[in-house]
Structure formats: structure tokens, C-alpha cells
Amino acid sequence: MPRTSDGDCPDKPNGTDDQGEPWEYTLYIPHDLRAVTIGRRTLRLVLNAHGLPHLAEAAELLATELVSNALRHTKGPAALRLRWAGRVLRIGVWDADPTPPEPASRVAAYAEEGRGLGLIRSCSDGWGWYPLGGSDGSGKYVWCELTATATALAR
User: Fold this and answer.
1) What are the E-state strand segments in 23-138?
2) CA–CA separation, 127 vs 145, rounded Å?
3) How far is Cα 107 from Cα 138, in angstroms, rounded to an integer?
């Protein structure tokens, strides 16, 4: 899969949107499975506080998959980042493993693993990843996006 950049949304100058100024939150999480629930609840709180509760259900599913993948496939800490700009919510997770995410080509009907990136691809308006750090491979950042208009139309 090609890497995708983490550029600002090009629709509006300076990343502004029709619902106010852009914002960003980052939650640093230890390598602890409780972080999945903490991240999900924090995300819902942030979206409600910014008047975006209609994005919460899909955003929680996506964030849960991203955070749980980071915790399952790495041994170090991670971070959950939420960014709103240009009517787009970007949910991203940093982890310390530089290995690219690989969507499963086939998943058995009753398999308990292997569906995460497929869910992200199906339930978001776009996703990607990029490596962090220099040649030492300091980790990666995996992200997905939800647009406010696409989510509102799906309701």
C-alpha cells in the first residue's frame, strides 16, 4: 500500500471549517489494554464537547481498532491523536513499531483477528500511514478520516 501524507485538508484555507476553528488533541497511552477503553471514552467526550456527537459511534469503532492494533502488535507506548479541520475528523495512532500495516487478504468467517484494517477501510472516508523518525525506524502513524457531511448523510 502506498504511503499517504498527513497534509492539512485542502478544502479551506489554513485548515478552518464551517463549524469553527480547527482543534487537535493527543492522548499518550501506556502499553495497557485498558487504554483502549480510556481512548474510546476520551474520544466521545471530545466530540460531544465540540458539538460533534453524530461522529462518535463511527469514530469510536475506528479509534478502538487503531489503538488495539498498536497495543497488540507493539511492546511500547502509543498515542491517540484527534484532529478536526475542514469538516474532517482525522483519527490517528502513533506506535513505536516501524512495520507497515498490512490488511489481511482473507479472513476466516469465525476468526477473532484480522478484520481491523478491513473495518477501518470500510467505515472511514480514507486511511493511510507513514513512517516516523529517521532511518532507524522510530515507529509509524496510522490514520483514518471521517467527513462530517458523509457521516450526516449516512444517518
Assistant:
1) 23-29, 78-85, 88-95, 126-132
2) 6
3) 30
Domains, the chain, with CATH or none: 19-147 (3.30.565.10)
Its pTM stands at 0.78
Note the pLDDT tens digit of each residue in 86-125. 999 999 999 998 888 876 666 555 655 556 788 898 899 9
d(CA 135, CA 155): 44
CA 18 to chain centre: 22
Hey, how many other C-beta atoms are within 10 angstroms of the C-beta on 154? 9
Rounded CA-CA distance 96/122 in Å is 25
The three cell numbers of residue 144 are 483514518
Place of cell 458539538: 51
pLDDT in tens, 35-68: 999 999 999 999 999 999 999 999 999 999 999 9
Cell reading at 115: 478484520
CA 21 to chain centre: 20
Distance, CA of 27 to CA of 141 (rounded, Å) = 14
* Contact between residue 16 and residue 51 where contact means Cβ atoms under 8 Å apart: no
